[in-house]
Amino acid sequence: MIADRLADVRRRVAQAALDAGRDPADVRLLLATKTQPVDLVLEALAADARARAADPTLSAVLVGENRVQELVAKGPSLDGLASLHLIGPLQSNKVNAALRWASCIESVESLDLAERLSARTSSTLDVYLQVNVSGEESKHGVAPSEAVALAGAVAALPHVRVAGLMTVGARSDDAAAVRAGYALLRSLRDEVVAAGTQTATELSMGMSGDLELAVAEGATLVRVGSAVFGARPR
Fold it and tell me: For the modification N6-(pyridoxal phosphate)lysine, which residues carry it (predicted)?
């Protein structure tokens, strides 16, 4: 049952935070809903609402879509029920569609994309800079060596706010290697803030299988899909 799995993920996050000497309230949960039907997403949001009614200290879950077409398709049903994030790559020809529904773009990996977002929104849009901490060619994101400079350039744009950094952890069974990537993102976040982009405090990292490692290294947002919804539909 989705409500039970959601509660279990919350317990995992809370325990990981306590083990790291952190306040569990400092870690938010994003539901990664790639390929999930909208009725299951609505079921998860209803379960979250019930949990928060019973415990007002809980923060509302966020919803993250990997694909703009799914964001557009589910947006009308989710409008007003949750903050929607785009967590997958964004092509320039889909910027307008993404901005119609997303309150945050977590996958900014170039100044060109940030400039397009800034030019096409009149309000202030939160963005995360995606960093490829593992160096894997299959993953999106700016190289770690370029992250601080990119953050400064994006922060100078008029209609975007660099809220933090995002990464997809290394695809590895070596927990130490995965954790090292998350530690690198935290270090880069600290460099970005020290360099003047003081809004960039968030760290979006960690998924269903490795969220404990991410929380231990300072994640403020973990993206969880299968642990709540089960295996993805094909």
Answer: 34
